TrEMBL record:
InterPro entries: Integrase_cat-core, RNaseH-like_sf, RNaseH_sf, Transpos_IS3
Pfam families cross-referenced by the UniProt entry: rve (PF00665)
Domain of life (superkingdom): Bacteria
Residue ranges of every copy of the Integrase catalytic domain listed in the record: 103-216
Organism in which the protein naturally occurs: Pararhizobium capsulatum DSM 1112
Taxon lineage: Bacteria, Pseudomonadati, Pseudomonadota, Alphaproteobacteria, Hyphomicrobiales
Name used for this protein in its record: Transposase
């Protein structure tokens, strides 16, 4: 530029001397007013449509309004105006470190119990209450019915205790039947500790969870039942066949 203006050198000669193209020499910046128009449109769009990002704004300007602005130019102005969508960061939950799974040292030290759900052939839902001894994962009982409230849970435990003896601890999750006053009062009367696992930590009840998987795999998920009595009878036979019901050899003295 200075060589052409001060020394009256021809543009073509100056461009060849400095190894630049004549197009580059004659390039002039676009009017700032056009950039102001782009900025105005972007501000209006992002104010009216707060969930729109750059992509939707540019498509609206190009396809709806018919502007031929280059997307890089529009994006540069979009960034300069700091119109990027603010993404709300997720709140990281502080999770407690799960307690290790307690391993009992002898039978009748700790029991675990849990519910399972399934359906009869006619679509009616039923539940099963499974109770095991954590020491050797021995199945102590399976109670089946359409509804198993806390009173029914207590009755089932009393029936098992009659032949098995009472445990020191019963490990359960935080279901409504297990946190009810009926079960807690029964446990306090019999001097039994109800140990609730930490919320969201099913691994702390791993013994009964694994037992439930066995029940599901060996018979509950393989057969179709018409009545509750059929389910209960099959559960009882399965416990007898697998050696999990009281016999002369497995009843503690």
């Amino acid at each position: 530029m200075q060589a052409v203006q001060k020394h009256n050198i021809k543009v073509a000669l100056a461009c060849r001397t400095f190894s630049i193209s004549e197009t580059c020499y004659r390039y002039g910046r676009k009017l700032d007013s056009e950039n102001e128009d782009i900025a105005d449109w972007l501000l209006r769009l992002t104010t009216a449509r707060k969930t729109w990002g750059f992509g939707l704004c540019f498509l609206y300007l190009r396809n709806i309004k018919g502007f031929t602005w280059n997307h890089k130019r529009v994006y540069r102005i979009y960034r300069e105006l700091e119109l990027n969508l603010r993404i709300k960061p997720r709140k990281r939950l502080v999770r407690e470190r799960p307690e290790p799974l307690a391993v009992p040292e002898h039978p009748n030290r700790t029991w675990s119990m849990d519910f399972m759900a399934d359906q009869l052939a006619d679509g009616r839902s039923f539940r099963t209450l499974n109770v095991i001894d954590d020491f050797n994962r021995e199945g102590l009982g399976i109670e089946v019915d359409f509804s198993l409230p806390a009173e029914r849970v207590v009755r089932s435990l009393n029936r098992i205790i009659e032949w098995r003896g009472k445990p020191d601890i019963i490990r359960v999750d935080n279901g409504p039947e297990y946190i009810s006053g009926t079960l807690l009062a029964w446990a306090e009367k019999r001097n039994i500790t109800i140990a609730h696992i930490q919320p969201g930590k099913p691994q702390q009840n791993a013994y009964i969870e694994r037992y439930n998987r066995t029940v599901r795999h060996e018979w509950l998920g393989c057969l179709i039942f018409d009545t509750i009595k059929e389910v209960q009878d099959h559960a009882t036979r399965w416990l007898c066949w697998s050696g999990r019901l009281p016999t002369a050899s497995n009843v503690p003295e």
